[in-house]
Design brief:
Layout: H1 5-47, H2 59-63, E1 69-70, E2 73-74, H3 75-95, H4 100-129, H5 134-156
Antiparallel strand pairs: 1-2
Length: about 160
């Protein structure tokens, strides 16, 4: 017996919602990959002790400041680790919808942590160093985007 029209519509709506949710997870993974690229570049610059190439702003001044490390760890390494964690979580949730129950709150926590730490670093650049690194600003913008995505994802996955 063919499914009734209301049941077919409900199944279609669920499939559409699942597809939209998967797309949000894939966008989150893509944003995380962009963050990995930015943080990776800044970390390599830090490890090699060379100033990052910057088309706008005094990146070298920010990258060599005493605020470029947190507890002795380069900020770029912390960012890289957070972005990698987000990429892993987003890829897992995009490929396995059953993972969204644990992945959505974890994504929000990591995105909130990244955005909060980036806001602090941005404040340091503006208020203390009076110099803003374009790479750092890009990373901060990526964390804001990730935070918005994590809220959208959490709303779809109660």
């Amino acid at each position: 017996m063919p499914p009734s029209k209301p049941r077919a519509r409900a199944n279609s709506a669920r499939a559409s919602a699942a597809g939209a949710s998967a797309r949000l997870w894939l966008v989150a993974a893509a944003v995380a990959v962009a963050g990995i690229a930015v943080s990776g570049y800044l970390l390599v610059s830090s490890v090699l002790d060379i100033a990052p190439v910057c088309l706008a702003g005094p990146c070298a001044e920010v990258a060599t400041s005493s605020y470029a490390r947190f507890l002795g760890i380069p900020n770029a390494a912390l960012g890289l680790a957070l972005y990698a964690g987000v990429a892993f979580i987003a890829a897992a949730a995009a490929s396995r919808p059953s993972a969204t129950s644990w992945a959505a709150p974890l994504l929000f926590g990591l995105a909130a942590s990244g955005a909060t730490f980036s806001a602090y670093l941005t404040w340091l650049q503006v208020a203390v160093l009076q110099a803003v690194c374009a790479w750092c600003a890009l990373s901060a913008a990526l964390w804001v985007v990730m935070l918005v995505l994590s809220v959208l994802i959490a709303r779809r996955n109660p």
